[in-house]
Amino acid sequence: MVSIMNFNNAEFYRAYGEFKQLPPCECCEIAFSGRSNVGKSSLINKIFNRKNLARVSAVPGKTATINFYSFGGIYAVDLPGYGYAKRSQSDKIRWSSLIEGYLTSERDIGLIFQLIDIRHPPSKDDLQMIDFMVEIELPFVIIFTKADKLSNNQRKERMAGFAQEIPYFEDIKSVQFSSQTGEGVEEIRSIIEEFASASN
Fold first, then answer.
1. CA distance 68 to 29
2. β partners of residue 72
3. Which of 16, 38, 57, 155 would you label with 82, given CA atoms 20 to 30 Å apart?
4. By residue range, what is the domain housing residue 57?
C-alpha cells in the first residue's frame, strides 16, 4: 500500500487543562484513550516516527491535559490517562469532566483508539469507556499495548480472555502493538489513512 499521508510531519499543537479552554473544532479528530501508563505517548511517538513528540513518562498519570497534534489536516488528540489512584479527588473530577466533555461534545471525532495493556484483563474504567463509546456510537479500535511482553501462547490466552471480558468483542477491530518492536504500527497507520480518505 502506498502511503497517502506523511506521518513524519506531525507537530504538537496545544495542550488544554479544562474542557472550556478547547477551541472550536476545525477538522476531523482522532483520539487516543486509555488508563494511566498504558503507553499512549509511546504509541503516538511510534505512529509519527518521532522520539519525543509526545512526552513519555515512567510516572503514571503524568498527562493531565488534552494534547492536540496536527498532521495531514487532522488532529490527533491524546486524552488524559484515567484510573490513577494516587491523584486527588479534585484532579479525578477535573480529568473526568475533561474526557467526558470532549467525547460528548459536538466535535468531529471520527475515531478513537482505546488502549488496553495486553497483559491484564480490562479494568473497570476500560470497560466503562468501551460501554460509553458503544452507547454514544463513537467508532473505536482497541489497541492492545506491550505485546512484546508476552509469549505467543500467553497472547493467545489473553486474547481468549478478552473475548469473554469485553462486551461485543467479536465485533470490535483490535490491533496488537509494541512500541519496542514496532509490531502493529503499520496496521494502525493504515487504519488512520483509511479514516482520512473517508473523511475528505
1. 9
2. none
3. 155
4. 7-199
**Within-domain flag for 19:** yes
pLDDT in tens, 44-76: 999 998 888 886 554 444 557 889 999 988 999
1, part of any domain: no
The answer to whether residues 161 and 194 touch, using CB atoms and an 8 Å cutoff, is no
Question: Kind and range of the H or E element at 188?
Answer: helix 185-199
Can you say how many angstroms the Cα of residue 50 is from the centroid of all Cα atoms in its chain? 17
Structural domain count of the chain:
1
Query: The domain that contains 76 carries what CATH number?
Result: 3.40.50.300
Model pLDDT for residues 96-153, shown as the tens digit of each residue = 778 888 998 889 999 999 999 999 999 999 999 999 999 989 999 999 999 999 999 9
Q: In one letter, which amino acid is 83?
A: G
Per-residue exposure over 82-117, b if at least 16 CB sit within 10 Å of its own CB, e if not: bbbeebeeeeeebbeebbeebbeeebebbbbbbbbb
